[in-house]
Amino acid sequence: MMPLRFVQKIRHRIDDDHHWLSRQKLAVFGATLIVIGISMGAFESGQTPPDNTNYTEIVELTLPDRLAPSRGAVDDRAVDQWDSVVVRSGQTLDTIFQQQGLSISLLHRILAVNKDTQGLTKIRPGETFEFRKDPNGDLLQMRYLLDEARYLLVRNENGVLSAEIQHRQIIVEINETEGVINSSLFLAARKAGLSDAMIMKLANIFGWDIDFVLDIRQGDRFMLVYERLFSEGEFLRDGNILAATFINQGERFQAIYFEDGEVSAYFAPDGRNMRKAFLRAPLNFSYISSSFNPRRMHPVLKRILPHNGIDYHAPRGTPVYAAGDGTVIRSDYSRANGHHVFIKHANSIQTKYLHLTRRLVKMGQRVSQGQTIGYVGSTGLATGPHLHYEFVVNGVHRNPRTVSLPKVESLKGATLKTFQTHAAPMLTQLSRLESTSLYAKRE
Ligand SMILES: [Zn+2]
Hints:
Structural class: alpha+beta
Strand content: 25-35%
Shape: globular
Distance between the termini: 47 Å
Bound molecules: zinc ion
Number of helices: 11
Number of strands: 20
CATH topology of the domain at 281-399: Glucose Permease (Domain IIA)
């Protein structure tokens, strides 16, 4: 079954003092209640809505039809009474059946139905079983969630057992949100209703352009359009980010997710792939950003001058990534550098990673971008845990955050046209989000 898609716009407000939006939200909420009231009322009595004023209001708001609950949907839920049981540690299906008032002989007959039901002997804590019974307490159906998209359905029709794997209907809701960074990206993102996993997704999309450790400033803003997955009215998880804007120190970066044949990646509005040959910050920023303090931020140049590199102060154990694809040309220990790794890349570029607590790669080993090559430490001449990172082009130290990097592939021809058609409404949505957030800020 194909996932059903519908669009629902939900705004997460960042600041509480923007009353006009709260009011607007309330108005929509009120109108939704009216729709329910009228549709139910009309259904019950077979009459047209008595109040034309309310009706006009609904039309103006153009709520999608399928968001209005139908009487049928409500009834289905009332009849479909499932008892849900989450497997606890040490629990077996025997004990679950006993608790449900079902016989062990029924369980054994179920296990014998087919290969799928035989698998029920290997259940794990946290898994879910659902039971539907008749008024006498006899089993009608049992469901076992295999994963978020499939379940095993066991039917008992007058003592005849059958079992089959069924697909759950996954509803993908398109959501939008925006935020302003006041103290940390993580805090702003949480206020915007985003999970930590989504923040990492957002950071990974822009990780080639923005150094999320050193470049983030108070007042930076983000807007995104993303998926939320639901099944049977229950929130499953966040899905993909479809489009996003990140405004970093006044510079606007935008990315749109695009799939076309073998292509599946994030692209800038002009069709350039967001992925580049080098990551801006070669370490997992989530270890650092959680303790981000804008007052401690210094202009990076001041740090670069003394020693030809960038120091990323980070907790011991923060994963250090290979900034780009390449070959390890040195993985060693010295009194000055401590545990260190040098990587040789294309275009006569070398990257160097010093003071690691532990190295995970050997000399001569090929590494790919984003691969963990070691962990932040304070070995060698280091006063505290930090990554000393150097970027060398043709033997000359360069600032990896400003050096122009090798160009990457761009979309061309017909694919570019398809992408631009796909991107246009997304970009409109993002710029609307951006102007709303600006308006709210000025208020
Ligand atoms: Zn240093």
